[in-house]
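Many introductory courses stop at the sequence. We go one step further.
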Amino acid sequence: MNAENTQKIFATIMLAVLGVGIATAITVFGLLSNSKNIQSSGTVKAVNIGVYWDSGCTNATSTIGWGMLSPGESKNVTVYLRNEGNVALRSNLTVQNWVPTGSSSYMGLVWNRENQTVAAGSVVTAVLTLSVSPSITGITDFGFDIVITGIA
């Protein structure tokens, strides 16, 4: 084998090693994600979306206290969502872990951002509305987890 062929083989091996290294780095970085927990007398988790009390996104939301609500009453809370990823996301809200268990039959949480697109790096206002049924009985304290998810 001459020196020219040896150099070509060496260069090919180096390119292959470099390619595997780059592919591994991309795979590792692709596995990283972002989540944010916020409590509403429970826990709210946001994936790739930051949830804040202010439009400048300096005061992260960690709990939501709904205060005292009467039967038939609704209460709004405004938060700000920031897409902290680098791709547009669809926003999704779910509620889970109601305490007491039966309280979900008398209470409901909705918002104005369901399935709406949030561009990468942008901030949008979200209004969460908790409603209490006029027929609620036997529940004086409650809690639940709010899960806010960004879906690519």
